Every structure is written in structure tokens, then in C-alpha cells.
Amino acid sequence: MKTRPAGIGNVNADWMGSLSSKLSAMPLKHLAVPGSHDSFTFWVDVHAPVGPDQRTYVKYLATMFSVLAKKVMVKWSMTQVLFKEQLDAGIRYFDLRVSSKPGEPGNEIYFIHGLFGHKVRDGLLEINSFLGRHRKEVVFLDFNHYYAMEAEHHVYLISMLQEVFGSKLCSHCAVENITLDYLWEKKYQVIVFYHHSSAQGVPVMWPGNKIPAPWANTTEPIQLIEFLETTLKKRAKQGSFHVSQAILTPTVNTVAKGLLWGLRSYLVERNLPTIMSWVEAQRPGVDGVNIITSDFVDLTDFANVVIKLNNLLLSEQDHVT
User: I need a labelling partner for 156 at 20 to 30 A (CA). Which of 26, 97, 131, 312 fits?
Assistant: First the structure.
């Protein structure tokens, strides 16, 4: 029997639908929502070319050493291990980077992080299947990096999103109006953020500036936490959601030192306690956290910890009333 990794389960598959009426009436920008970083990098293809998101010297090494170099890259490209299980565990924000395969005929689009992953269509269909079974759950799909994509690729991707999700797509409106009650009434379950001018004028594609996600770009957990605190204090009061990226980013030196161990073992696991302590100490609400993302969401009870932060809002309301 196949076992699930620690921190992954289906106990939160319907967590949004199970929130109290007080919380479902609040703007979603004030709720705590768990997310994953580079959400679809649970599988990458070592036989495909190195992705166009990589620096020239990385492409050179991969060309020289072929599959061996790519197997090392896998250890530093994969930031998640499962996807359907992420949905079941309660992850509702997905950080998505996509690319065409240069030289491949047609307009097919793939998820990417160093190496190519699954076709985007396959991932979207899996999300749609989940939403069909869980009618009160809502996902944020943040398409924030595009590689080797011409105008026709963007047209293809935007059309694909509309084709797959149809009436589940939430039209762009004031962020303050987006509550779960509002989404349930309209039967909306998907909010797509598209960080490219190709989506201008498409009502169901939200502009990227509606979901800022400041990036610390550090390997040091203390610096990361200082950055998270500083950017939270600067969070816009109106007009946008907010992503706190509780992630550490490897440098070339980090990869060299931990070459054979990889991101999960060398950087993430050893620093998780510090990062999770920060998450557990947060409060959602007007001046608090909104969306929090993490690498390898299976390593801890990450989603559950973030979801439970919403109980603090309930306690505050009960106290006031």
C-alpha cells in the first residue's frame, strides 16, 4: 500500500466550504490561504532539453554532460513532490511558470523550472476535476513567468484556460468584493492571474499587479523572515491580494556545496523549523498575512497550520461581539 508523505492528506479537501459564515463573508484578501512554490515541479523530464529559463552556463553543462547533469538538476529543480495531494491537503494558491519547447512544432505549453515538466493542459484538467468534486473550493492560479512564448502561445494558453474552466473563471473586479460567499453565489472557483499584456481586455484574466509576491532571494532563514516582516508592513491596504513567499533560494555556491543532496535535503529540510515557527506566529486580517507559499508542502503539516490561522479572525470577531 502506497503511503502519503508526512503533511499530506485529504482532511482539508473541503476547508473553504467548511469555514464559518463569518469567515466566508470576509474578503479573501484577509484570509490565510496556503500555497505552493513552483507548484507543478513534482515531475520533470530529464530527457527533454534544459529549459529556456536557465542561464547559459547551465545549458552548456547540461549539453556537455547530458542526462547526468540533468539528474543533478532534478534535485534542484523539483520544489514539490505531489499535485493532486496538494489540492486534497488544502493548497489553494499555485505558483506557475510555463514555457514552449523551442523547436517543437505547434503551440504546446509545459510547466517549467530548470527542466520541462508536464503539459499545462494536463495540470489544468486535474485541477478542474478536483473542483468538480469540491464545489465550494476556490483556487488561485498565478501564471507569473513565461519562457520561449510568442503571441500565438499566449493566445493558445489563454484560450486553453477558458476552455478548461469555462464558467468557473472569476471575472476581474474589485479585490475587496471577492469573498467566498460572492464566489459561491456566482459559482466561480478559479481566479487566474496572468502577468503578460496578452491578457489585457480578457475579463477572466486578472492582471499580475493584483497579486504581488515579493521575493527575498536568500539562502538564510533569518534574512528571509526579516524580509517577510518588512514586506507585510508595506502591504497595500486596498486593491490586491498578497503572497508571502516563505521560501529559500539556492545560489550557485549552494548548489555546488549540496550538489548530490539537492534542494529538499540540503536547504529546505534543515531550515523548516525556523520557517514554520514564523508561519505559526502569523495572523491574517487587514494588516496580516494572506497567501503563504512554501517549498515541499508535504514535509510538514504546512497547509493545516496556515488554514488554522483563520480561527484567530473568528476569535477576534467573537470578542468584539
Answer: 131
Residue 195 among the catalytic residues = no
CATH assignment of the domain containing 80: 3.20.20.190
Instruction: Write down the pLDDT at residue 295.
Output: 73
**321: part of which helix (H) or strand (E)?**
none
Among 113, 153, 196, 242, which one carries the catalytic annotation? 113
CA within 13 Å, CB half, 157? 31
Name the 3-class secondary structure at 288: coil
Catalytic residue among 30, 37, 153, 242: 37
What is the overall mean pLDDT for the chain? Answer: 80
Q: pLDDT-based confidence at 68, cuts 50/70/90?
A: very low
Range(s) of the domain holding residue 210: 16-315
Determine whether 196 is an active site residue: no
Number of domains in the chain: 1
Look up the pTM and report it.
Answer: 0.82
- Residue 5 inside a domain? The answer is no
Instruction: Quote the CA–CA distance of 69 and 254 in Å, as a whole number.
Output: 16
What does the DSSP 8-state code read for residue 186? H
